[in-house]
């Protein structure tokens, strides 16, 4: 006959129990002189007592039996660790002496069992001195009446389990959870926690302040009601998939603020694991990214605008290359460089004002700088008169080209081509229309208007009528040009440059 490693030579006790020669509870029960206890010699014990004792000794569940008038204490190996230093002296002693320090706590349950009523307690807290000092302990157990051979209640039977480790761990977990949630509540960002099923178990104060929700409306899946209806299904589906896969996720959706305004938010989360790697749920944060999205959209629009303007500039340069005429290469180069420089100055003005528009006087000064002289000059070759006017962005480039062509013509053929000549540029706004007058005086004598129009003339005409949607009137005086422009200050005009 083979035995387990823990087993040793055995012998049969007088009550038929299998008593091992090792120092276990069964062996101690066999060796104890019961005649000196209230239970009396083993041979006088009722069959019911032997049956319950045999049941206990063959069970791995902690059990004890309190039998007879003094509720003498009997227990199994599994119960011995619960007794601590009181084992093995607790065998045969009255129950009230074995657990004297908690007898008052246990007595009501003992009395109910002896009266025929079973009792169940879960995680009962008791302060024990089983090892010579006070210990906080927790137990889950049942007390049941134990009957003798005649069916009378002769004692009390208990199955129990010490749950101290479990309770302490759960309390530590709750404490950690409490600290964790306190940290979440102190965070300026909106934060949330779910259970393993994906139900939201905590939303921090920032969430409630932002959305106006309460615990009653936000926990569980209630938080989804604050998500924009058009984003709700996608958000719920993505969230459920991340929970099922226990994986991190990030998504954008529109979130209703407490004042009813919809704001763009980014929701990012990671799975939460315990020390053993067990999935506990997700923890995530929600940030208002509306301002960032607006900035990104503006940047995208600006990039498109820059691309559009660059193409317009290239179109104008191509037109200038195609239509510029000159008797020789140096003349051609000078004419082309001047027109490209005018475009560059217009682009710089727009860039400085973040493409919102350009100051009209600054634009004019850029083209006429050599003739304006210092601000305190007594008799500058060119003078500017008019109120502050901010040109729409779409109007800036074509007007810069128009002014450049007028200035180029004045320098080559008009008032600015001679020392005595001078120029006066005046402007005002009348019912949303820019009225600009270009007046040249004391220039070379003009016997008659030019018979043919060059690139500059075509640029002026195409710009005013075709692009700016305005009107132009040119009067050729004997000593200079008189040009009257009427230009609507519209912001919806095209920026294409129809030259050719």
TrEMBL record:
InterPro entries: PAC, PAS, PAS-assoc_C, PAS_4, PAS_fold_3, Sig_transdc_His_kinase_HWE. CDD domains: PAS. It holds the Pfam family HWE_HK. Residues 249-301 form the PAC domain. Residues 176-246 form the PAS domain. Its EC number is 2.7.13.3. SMART domains: HWE_HK, PAC, PAS. It catalyses: ATP + protein L-histidine = ADP + protein N-phospho-L-histidine. Keywords: ATP-binding, Chromophore, Flavoprotein, FMN, Kinase, Nucleotide-binding, Phosphoprotein, Photoreceptor protein, Receptor, Repeat, Sensory transduction, Transferase, Virulence. NCBIfam families: sensory_box (TIGR00229). This is histidine kinase. It comes from Falsiroseomonas oleicola.
């Amino acid at each position: 006959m083979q035995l387990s490693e823990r087993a040793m030579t055995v012998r049969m006790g007088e009550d038929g129990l299998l008593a091992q020669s090792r120092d276990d509870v069964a062996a101690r029960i066999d060796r104890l002189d019961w005649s000196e206890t209230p239970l009396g010699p083993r041979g006088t014990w009722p069959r019911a007592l032997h049956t319950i004792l045999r049941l206990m000794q063959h069970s791995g569940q902690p059990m004890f039996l309190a039998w007879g008038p003094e509720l003498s204490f009997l227990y199994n190996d599994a119960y011995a660790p619960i007794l601590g230093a009181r084992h093995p002296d607790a065998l045969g002693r009255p129950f009230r002496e074995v657990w004297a320090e908690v007898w008052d706590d246990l007595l009501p349950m003992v009395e109910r069992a002896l009266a025929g009523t079973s009792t169940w307690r879960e995680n009962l807290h008791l302060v024990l001195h089983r090892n010579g000092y006070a210990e906080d302990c927790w137990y889950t157990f049942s007390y049941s009446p134990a009957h003798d051979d005649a069916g009378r209640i002769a004692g009390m039977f208990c199955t129990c389990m010490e749950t101290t480790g479990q309770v302490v761990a759960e309390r530590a977990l709750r404490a950690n959870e409490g600290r964790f949630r306190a940290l979440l509540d102190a965070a300026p960002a909106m934060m949330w926690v779910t259970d393993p099923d994906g139900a939201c178990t905590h939303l921090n104060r920032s969430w409630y302040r932002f959305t106006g929700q309460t615990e009653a409306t936000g926990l569980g899946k209630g938080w989804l009601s604050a998500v924009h209806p058009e984003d709700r299904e996608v958000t719920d589906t993505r969230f459920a998939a991340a929970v099922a896969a226990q994986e991190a996720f990030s998504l954008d959706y529109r979130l209703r603020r407490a004042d009813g305004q919809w704001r763009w938010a980014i929701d990012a989360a990671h799975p939460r694991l315990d020390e053993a790697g067990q999935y506990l749920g997700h923890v995530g944060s929600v940030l208002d990214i509306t301002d960032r999205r607006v900035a990104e959209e503006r940047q995208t629009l600006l990039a498109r605008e820059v691309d559009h303007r660059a193409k317009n500039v290239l179109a104008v340069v191509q037109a200038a290359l195609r239509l510029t005429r000159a008797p020789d290469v140096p003349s051609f180069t000078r004419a082309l460089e001047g027109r490209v420089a005018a475009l560059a100055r217009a682009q710089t003005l727009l860039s400085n004002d973040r493409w919102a528009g350009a100051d009209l006087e600054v634009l004019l000064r850029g083209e006429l700088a050599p003739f304006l002289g210092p601000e305190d000059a007594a008799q500058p070759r060119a003078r500017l008169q008019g109120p502050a006017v901010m040109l729409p962005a779409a109007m800036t480039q074509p007007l810069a080209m128009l002014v450049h062509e007028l200035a180029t013509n004045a320098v080559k053929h008009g008032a600015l081509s001679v020392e005595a000549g001078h120029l006066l540029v005046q402007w005002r706004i009348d019912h949303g229309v820019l009225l600009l007058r270009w007046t040249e005086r004391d220039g070379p004598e003009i016997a008659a208007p030019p018979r043919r129009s060059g690139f500059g003339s075509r640029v002026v005409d195409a710009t005013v009528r075709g692009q700016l949607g305005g009107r132009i009137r040119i009067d050729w005086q004997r000593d200079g040009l008189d040009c009257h422009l009427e230009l609507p200050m519209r912001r919806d005009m095209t920026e294409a440059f129809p030259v050719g």
